[in-house]
Amino acid sequence: MGNWVVNEGLSIFVILVWLGMNAFLFVWYYRVYDNREQFFYTRKLLGAALPLARAPAACLNFNCMLILLPVCRNLLSFLRGSSACCSTRIRRQLDRNLTFHKMVAWMIALHTAIHTIAHLFNVEWCVDARVNNSDSYSVALSKFEDKPGETYLNFAEKKIKVSLLFPDPDVP
């Protein structure tokens, strides 16, 4: 057991710090977009999909920054070559760079799926607020226009011309 902790301890520590940073970023940005006053009207129009789209976006930024570091050959060669910085244990961890690279890639795939699904809900709720007149507050926000036919809160037009799944023959 003692040998396992010595050999794998640093690797487990790095993975736990990385997972903790992802969890922190997700929770922090979810709370920012769910509670701050400056996003009140957008949150009223989009509902819970606003923080569910923005929180994984922050994690995506972090992981996309991180994905190239494990495969940067010059950086790895420099760290392996500098004996003052790297002990034998750390050099052993540097040899497992592709495993960490793959884990970051899977995290990017997960956050991309969450982010995309949340944006699909955003589009659905924008169209619903504009077309179905679901909530009086959402309708008022959708009609708030700077110029005729242009709004910064709701991009959906009054008449949706293309329906991919169920085309309506009455809509031109």
Explain what this protein looks like in three dimensions.
Helices cover 69% and strands 0% of the residues. The chain is mainly α and 172 residues long. The longest helix is centred in the middle third of the chain and has 36 residues, at 97-132. The N and C termini lie far apart (71 Å).
Question: How many distinct helices?
Answer: 7
Distance between the termini: 71 Å
Approximately what portion of the residues adopt beta-strand conformation?
under 5%
Order of helices and strands: HHHHHHH
Number of beta strands = 0
Low-confidence sequence ranges:
none
- Report on the biggest sheet: none
Structural class: mainly alpha
Question: Gyration radius, to the nearest Å?
Answer: 23 Å
Global shape: elongated
In helices, the fraction of residues equals 55-70%
Return the average pLDDT rounded to an integer. Answer: 77
Transmembrane segments: 12-33
Keywords: FAD, Flavoprotein, Membrane, NADP, Oxidoreductase, Transmembrane, Transmembrane helix
GO molecular function: oxidoreductase activity
Organism: Equus caballus
